[in-house]
Amino acid sequence: MKSEKDKMLSSELYDPLDPQLCAERRRARLLIKTLNDSRDDQPEERRRIIQELFKITNEEVWIEPPFFCDYGTNITLGNKVFFNFNCVVLDVAEVLIGSNVMFGPAVQIYTATHPLSASDRRTGLELAKPIEIGSDVWVGGGALILPGVQIGAGSVIGAGSVVTKSIPEGVLAVGNPCRIIREVKD
């Protein structure tokens, strides 16, 4: 029988009140509180917290507090990833972020979703869909990236965009809903 965590990571309905999931969220929130309370003159402390919170492939990750996420352990970061102030990552499902990716302030990445049926929502069960962001992507401030979206390498997402569908490589996409405007030349 699958654990609630296994169901969550498999994009199946799961119970968010499961004791293991509650404990893992609590762990992340304590680390995030420490990160958000840290000072600019404490780069080693910030690096330690970031390494404990995320799956990272190196130490070149910059996060401007405040920052918020559900678990941290469901986020995999490439090299040279930058989160500006006030970003939120609801990492109920896996969030894969490539290298050389920049997030403007107040970017929100949501893997979490809920059943459409009111009777199904009343059960309290939730579900999530993974998000993947390729290398060399720039996401402008205030953009929302919704469950199940993939953003191709080298693309730019305009500030304030709501990304409801996957975006291919090498394009500028903006708006609500986010639409491709043109190719981006390197």
UniProtKB/TrEMBL annotation:
Residues 5-59 form the Maltose/galactoside acetyltransferase domain. Its EC number is 2.3.1.-. Transmembrane segments: none annotated. It is an enzyme of class 2 (transferase). Keywords: Acyltransferase, Repeat, Transferase. The keyword Acyltransferase applies. It holds the Pfam family Hexapep. It comes from the Bacteria. SUPFAM superfamilies: Trimeric LpxA-like enzymes (SSF51161). CDD domains: LbH_MAT_GAT. PANTHER family: ACETYLTRANSFERASE YJL218W-RELATED, GALACTOSIDE O-ACETYLTRANSFERASE. Belongs to the transferase hexapeptide repeat family. This is Acetyltransferase. It comes from Trichocoleus desertorum GB2-A4. The lineage of its organism: Bacteria, Bacillati, Cyanobacteriota, Cyanophyceae, Leptolyngbyales.
